[in-house]
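Hi R.,

Here's the input for the 3-methyl-2-oxobutanoic acid complex you asked about:
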Amino acid sequence: MRMAVSGIGRCASTGALRAKRPAGAAAEGRYSHGPEPLPCTDDPDLPSHASARTIRPRQRGAAAMSGAARKPITLHRLRAMHAAGEKIAMLTCYDAAFAQLLDDAGVDVLLVGDSLGMVLQGRPSTLPVSLDEMAYHTRCVARGNRSAWIVADLPFGSYQASAEQALHSAAQLMQAGAHMVKLEGGGWTAPLVRALVERGIPVCAHLGLTPQSVHALGGYRVQGRDDDAAQTLRAHATELAAAGAAMLVLELMPSALAGELAAALPIPVIGIGAGPACAGQVLVLHDMLGITPGTLPRFVRNFMHDGGAIADGVRRYVAAVKDGSFPDPARHGY
Ligand code: KIV
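And here is the predicted structure with 3-methyl-2-oxobutanoic acid in place:
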């Protein structure tokens, strides 16, 4: 869920305007520590002055943290977690520094969400985010990550035209370091999903509140409340799984409906504002770290509420997703 914006503030789910403040700068692909400096002169993302510096690869092995210790999360592993009933902890991530921190803290899936348009760029919606911007942030995340599974959003306008367009766009994100691409919507997206999957690109589908359709949906509202809407969501979810989607994000819908879908589908369903019965949970990083200003939707929990280090807040999130204490149906559900 695109929650709020750090720059021109608008809560993505409520649409509430916030006071303006300068947007933060994303990390520029440098790591703050690491054992062996490597020269890096051929990276087009680096500012020109960076060629006079050195790039340090992320520290491996030394950090006795889960990201450093665990084996890489693969699609096979995610399926095994789903089959075993182990909850999948997913967070959005947009830069190398946080990728390393989240990976080390045990986050299973890093989502390079197009929410970056709102969170990092201060835009009023995700619609203006470009494919180049998504590829840039995916490269940054891939550099900082060691073992988490990386999902990158296909932004608005990069897949709607045709399967060919979707393939071309997805290829750019995969070459940037994504392991899977995510696209929004059901019905018309099933042939696109099939085309991508047949060509070796794992796909995560996204139903419920699909923020790229915010203007058609009339705002950031809970979806699937009435019988017809719920029936359409059931049909779309079933069709997307049959088309080969390997994961499904359900955003902002009644917990009972999301739980029903999660139980019925053979693929892991990751919820955001969709109740506790999903196979995993995702939140926007800046929301759960309490960085996002203003009042957030009820499904967000601030894992920094009690203070401490950011890594501890992220570990609290992973633990709460894994043990099922987040989301709490009474406080975070619909
Ligand atoms: O862009 C995004 O952050 C998302 C959500 C599911 C968190 O798609």
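One thing worth noting: DSSP finds 13 helices and eight strands in the chain.

Cheers,
M.
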